[in-house]
Amino acid sequence: MTPIDSPEQARARLEQTGYLVDDGLAVACFLALRLHRPVFCEGDAGVGKTALATALAQALHAPLIRLQCHEGIDASQALYDWDFPRQLLHLRAAEAAGVRDADRLERELYDRRFLVARPLLRALQTQPSVLLVDEIDRADDEFEAFLLEVLSEYQVTIPELGTLRAEVPPVVVLTSNRTREVHDALKRRCLYHWFDHPGFARELAIVRRRLPGVSARLAEQVTALVQALRAEDLLKPPGVAETLDWARALDALGADEVDAELAVATLGSVLKYREDTHRARGLDFAAILGPRGAGPA
User: How far is 289 from 297, CA to CA, in rounded Å?
Assistant: First the structure.
């Protein structure tokens, strides 16, 4: 893993990957590396929480290992499982060869070659690595408690094999869209960072950095439109990810700039609910585009 020795260096290395960070996030990333503590990222969908893990992996030249949480996820899906079909084949082959030693067969069946490492175990065994635990708020309380135990010591105990410990703890990023409150016990184990929607200047800088092929005028107009949409009472305000999607869609249509008619026609790139689309159609897009759309950016 390529070392990072200061928050300023963390910022610079992340920005080299195209991910722009503020002072608070740069400090959190540096401390995560120095103190081996997870970064807990909370905020609305599409504001760059998941992208942080990807950027960290690129900045550190380390593989990204992702655990996508969902309702009902359990330890076997996150940590490890045994390859039952291969174990069964091995047992039949041993029986065909006349092996009758039960203890030997049991030891062979629970050998590491039959162990299926899920994301958490892969992260502990891969040095270095970046572990993304995405949308932890979708998991239940029991899984949250299990995760806390694993991240406290960066080790797991497999009854058949013993305790497996990470020689170099992975860099861990946890994300939450705040669909429910995550317990304080897990948050206290982490460095916390709240992701706000960026202001106009910062969001425009992100679009220009991530989509250098998009015209400067189009980038500015799309950013202004998204900022205006967020000011409305929408069911699902668009995040930066949707800003980038809208700019990509307009660029794919060959547009160097956007007018009100084209903006309405492409709302499906940025809004995903019928009610939000209906409300957006009532906006005066020409007025929104006027101040920044009148001349080159």
Answer: 12
